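Mods, move this if it's the wrong board.
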Amino acid sequence: MAGCWTRPEIPLDAGGSTDWSNVDPASEQTAFEQLKTLDRREFDQAWEKLSRFAYSQSRSISVRDLDGVVVGQAAKTIRISGPADRREVTVISSDSSGSIEQSLWSQFDTQGASETAFEETVWNWPELVLPEDPLFLSERGPSFFRYAAAGDTLIESALVTIFESAVRQDESRQGIQRARLYLHQGSLVGAEILVTQQSFLFHELSSFRIILSPGPGGEWLPAHVALLSTVGLPFSRSRSYEMLVTYSDIRLP
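Not the wrong board. Structure tokens:
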């Protein structure tokens, strides 16, 4: 269905990145010690908790060429309601334009695509964005990464401390290059990760973002997910893919 397409707003802007020239070894060690002991249960269990609520979900995907021109985009908003054993999905709006690989949108659209059944865990967002035991949070991390406390911000009315990590300049490695983590009283409630992967067959630069926010009863629930990936293939034009998911109007069913 052709028509206009609105990009969901990112609900949190935490400011610029760390000036590493001003970060001393002692503060790096302090930041690392705090990150090393973070509790990720809120982060990992957010979607399981969400299944107890009614909510709206808006998701979109856009594809751009190297010049930044949009070659295809699609968006859908759904409402999920009903008790856990009888979830109902209502499509509020659906829109697309241009050209998007059908397989790509179909995979992304499996979350809530069915009118009669719904399974939010088709994509394991926490594991996709921040796998268990990443190198930068391990005991070996300081050999390869730098760390800093990057100030505080508010998510809704909850005070959150931001920590950043980045690969050391003398390190040349694939995988996670930079990370920004959001902690509330020691619990992980948000993450932004920059990843590179390269081989003879392709080059990929991807950024991932999950932000939780306090929901009914103060439980931390999903608010925003973003994936932005630029992929280069031999004998083919590079393209960038942006996927956005936002959650709103969360209520007890």
